[in-house]
Amino acid sequence: MKQAVVLIVLGLSLIGCTTPEKDGDDAVLARIGDDVITVNDFLLNFEFGHAHLRTGAEAKRDYLSFMIYEALMAQEAEALRLDTLPTMQNAMSTLKEELLIERVFDEKVLAGIEVTEEEIEAEINKMAVSFQFRFLPAAGRQDAELLHRDMQERGFEAVLEERKEQIPELSAVEGQLQSPYVKADEIDAELLDILKDLELNTASPPAFYRGQWYIFEVQDIRRVRLSPEDYENKSSSYEKVIYNRKALEKGGAFVAQTMEPLGVRTKRAGFEILESALWEWYTDQQPESNLLFYIDELGVEKPYIDRLVQNYAVPLVEFGQELWTIESFIAHFTPGRYIMTTKTRDAFTARMADVVALVIRDHVLLDIAEGEALGDYPGLQRDLRKWKLSWMSVEYKKWLTHDSTTSWNAEAYRKHAEQLLSDNKVSIRWGILDTLNITMPEGSPGPTVNLLKSNSNKRPFPIVDAGWKVN
Question: Are strands 448-453 and 322-325 parallel, antiparallel or unpaired?
Answer without folding.
Answer: unpaired
